[in-house]
Design goal:
The structure is a single chain. By secondary structure, the chain is an alpha+beta fold. It has eight helices and 13 strands. Strands 1, 2, 3, 4, 5, 6, 7, 8, 9, 10, 11, 12 and 13 form a 13-stranded mixed beta sheet that branches. A hairpin with a 2-residue loop joins strand 4 and strand 5. Helix 1 packs antiparallel against helix 3 and helix 5 runs antiparallel to helix 7. The protein is globular, with a radius of gyration of 21 Å. The two termini are 32 Å apart.
Length: 333
Amino acid sequence: MKKMLFLFAILLSLNIHAQMIYQQKTSVEAARALILSLTAEQKKQMLLPLSDSFRTAWSNLPNGQITRKGLWLKETTDEQKQKVHALLRTVLSQQGYQKFLFIMQYDEAIQTRLTATNNPIATRYDDENYWLCIFGEPNLDKMWSFKFEGHHISLNITLSKKGVTCTPLFTGINPALTQSGAYAGRYIMYEEDALGKALFNSLNPDLKKKAHLGAHPIDADVMTQTGREPHVAGKEGVLYSELNPEQKAIIISTIEAWVKNMTPTIAEEKMRKIKKTINQMRFVWRGSDDVTQLHYYRLQSPACIIEFSNRDGGIFHYHTIWRDLEEDFSEKK
């Protein structure tokens, strides 16, 4: 029996390795195809060295509030746009890819609303105000990375012989729930909000008190901007080990709402890593006990920080982030 289990473990490991090689191969091929389609000037804009400081920075701010490097979607041909999206699909699952598309589409809707009222900041928002950078040379034998970023999206992928890292990953939406017009009823990033509220509501009074760190600030945002904030070393909140089986299942589903934005190969590897220290995971909440009001929550362990926040006083304006401080912007350990 032990021999069979040992052989099964070896076969599983070989299969996982083969899947990861295929994962990286598709990304390399997609990146190279995109590069071949670019003009000399576009290559200068998009292709940057691994040492470029922009690689290890991130922002979700819209155009006009921050200057980004890279290939601007607005200045690409239809063929090039197809190749940009093909590269994104090599690392994003169908769930993640559709989420990105909706976020970008909603940015176009923001522009439409602001343009109708002659708001001067309308030009900040557009479904083409997104940029792609490739750092280093796309190659199976070398470390390289790419960043896709714009309002409410920051995707940071690093590939090497050791595997793929995919954090920080920022996703946001405004409004998550459309309440009028042709899109009335459409609710994007529903799980991220609903699961956090379900977990908080399920806690008994003592655990709820332990999780609750205070009021929700009106200017609340994700807190892990640099990874050096005081809460990173903090021990506040409710431990995973204090929860019942149903609550633990909600924790896992909540994590998956972010992790499963990536392809199954990447997501499965990240979930295995997160589960190794799952008993050290903590849940914290800010806001009132009424989950229909403004709220913030965080899941935090040595392998994972996930944050959800209502933003700018809007119950349907979501800012979220997934960090792995050991692997952010770097090759897989």
